[in-house]
Write a sequence for this structure.
């Protein structure tokens, strides 16, 4: 990996940055929506994780909307 880093630094950093984005997203979800699951079955656990991801995406979009002053347009007029 050291040779890969030295001789293909751009490619290495591109993949490393993807990992840091994934880890940051997981930490944001865990911080806001807790890191444990309360579901008892596997199917319910998967649904709970998907709901947490959906809620995280909604929160990020709403925050960006207010920070950037974007006016949402619902439906086609």
């Amino acid at each position: 990996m050291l040779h890969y880093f030295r001789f293909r630094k751009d490619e290495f950093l591109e993949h490393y940055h993807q990992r840091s984005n994934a880890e940051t997203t997981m930490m944001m979800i865990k911080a806001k929506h807790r890191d444990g699951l309360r579901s008892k079955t596997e199917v319910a656990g998967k649904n709970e994780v998907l709901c947490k991801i959906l809620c995280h995406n909604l929160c990020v979009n709403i925050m960006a909307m207010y920070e950037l002053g974007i006016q949402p347009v619902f439906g086609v007029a």
Notes: Helices lie at 2-7, 9-33, 42-68. The mean pLDDT is 91. Residues 2-68 form one domain. Residues 42-68 form the longest helix (27 residues).
